[in-house]
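Q: What would this complex look like in 3D?
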Amino acid sequence: MSLRERFSSVRRRLVPALAAGDLVPDLVFEDDRGEVISLRGLAGRPFVVAVSSKWNAGSDAPVREGELRAELRGLGAALLVVSARGAWFLEADDPRRDLALCDADGGHDAVYHALGVLRDDDGEHPFMLFVVDARSTIRKVHVEPAGAREALAVLIALRAAMEALRARPAAQPILLNRRELVITTLVSAFALLALDGCSRSEPSPLPAPAAPAPASPTVEVKLHVNGSEHALALEPRVTLLDALREQLGLTGTKKGCDHGQCGACTVLVDGRRINACLTLAVMHQEAQITTIEGLARGGELHPMQAAFIERDAFQCGYCTPGQILSAVALVSEKRARDEAEIRELMSGNICRCGAYPNIVAAIQDVQRMG
Amino acid sequence: MRAFAYTRAEDEGAALRAAEHAEAAYLAGGTTLLDLMKLEVMAPGRLVDVNALPLNAVEVRADGVRIGALATNTDVAYHEVIRARYPVLSEALLAGASPQLRNMATVGGNLMQRTRCPYFRDPPAPCNKRAPGSGCSAVEGYSRAHAVLGGSGACVATHASDMCVALAALDAVVHTRGARGERSIPFTDFHLLPGDHPERETVLEHGELITAVTLPASPLAAHSRYLKVRDRASYAFALASVAAALDVQGGIIVAARVALGGVATKPWRAFDAEKALVGKAPGDVAFRAAAEIALRGAAPLRDNAFKVELAKRVIVRALASVGEAS
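A: Here is my prediction, written as structure tokens for the whole assembly.
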């Protein structure tokens, strides 16, 4: 059985009864001083619940708890971790709390039971992640088969998970994409570290948290992207790039340097190529924006997309959406008459794999089509 | 990026009123401002978006050309009249940044472009320009990219703009509107030397809005070139650049313009070198003599002495290419 088949078959059996849009079940925990934390009682702010039976202590995840706390503070969020070894609750400014419900397997099973999940064939529970908004509504559910996960940069994970939570209106259906899968993996790595911390008898000294960047009120922003109109509520500081990726889920537009130096974020605004990272979404309300997702017509690739494939004009592919949009604009600008001019006028798009000769060839192919 | 209040100004009056706020900054193309806001080098509490103002025209007039402050670098660089009558400006714009950035960046914004000094862009590092009184990290630090002309003990950061070097050579005038009305500022007076206050970079008052740049009609300007030398062939800041123009009549230079970029703390007009060229026959002897004069006051640091000879050679080559054309 391939990994893919195994993954999907396990998922089929272990998907919880709960889904995005449902209210979170009102699980109740108690800390070692007898104070009660209930999931419904957390209403009023977002939180993440991460559940697994397989986590063990001893992780060496490079996570600084102070920075995590700063993230939680900036987002007004909390994190609850549940495993067979115990449960644990983290808020920005309070001491970490060990929770009592999970000191026995029965308690841990009770959590799975409340979430409607059964053990798999090996008697293992899956890893699950629930992102819950301030109205106790589940905004995202992610399930993975039980298994070892690598400890990665968890701070980034928490930030991304929480931002995803802030970003989407609750009514919108939420599908798990590859990016969010990475996020859930990272959050689980955070849990590894958290449990490791819980298992020590003495609390470790915490570094001073970094000051969070406070939010500002959102403004209504209308964006016309790939022929569709979108009404968004954004902070003014949200770049066009972040709005496309984080709000509209158009992750084809890449974030490379985020400072206008690499061209990975190139999009067309009223047909002109720009760096979406150095402009605010709120500045483009009357414009027609085209991203890589908007180039194909039905099932037919844009000629530049087809030429990039034909000429093998990429290797890792990360710069490719920006290269293609920049190349589309270059052809329509009609200023590049030879290879040297193509290279000069594509110099705003860096390719670290060095696919330049094939990129130039693809552009010349399209130029020859007239 | 720090949070800020955002205002979209529908006319100049509204823009000026909104910009009276002590923490306000104007937002045009955003290519410098948003970059530096992400780094928290700049943190204005209020942005006044001026992109809706009707200031993007390039108007050809009997006495020259008027370029609206919101005309993009692309619009100006490819404008037929600019290419024909002020080629140095078109070449300078096309030597800067990338097509994407040139589609965003505006002429007014380009006048306000900030230095690329790595210490200025790194908030933990001492920098008198970013944090007055904190010291200069470059004077004792890695100074390869820094200025050899116009520096002070407080700051040796180069001015980053290519366009401004061309405007310095073209005797441009900057037009503004502020609380005290309109004014016209000769280009070479617009930027300030760092002196003891490198945080002050232009003569603009708080809330003053750049509305246009005018270029006088000039027999010189049609015979002008921009030559830029950098670490890679495209999409890099200048190590040394030269805007040069010559008016040659009967085999004798009757007027000359030489401005330098990449080597000075402001767009650098080499007035003495220009004077030395007048009355001479165009050629290597005169050009080299002018180049020596232009760099006479150079004060290199530990890592940038190469810029002195480099700038001289770029001057000679730029003047030679103009001389051949005229």
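A: To summarize the key features: Chain B is about 30% helix and 20% strand. Chain B touches chain A through 31 residues (CB under 8 Å).
Q: Very helpful, thank you.
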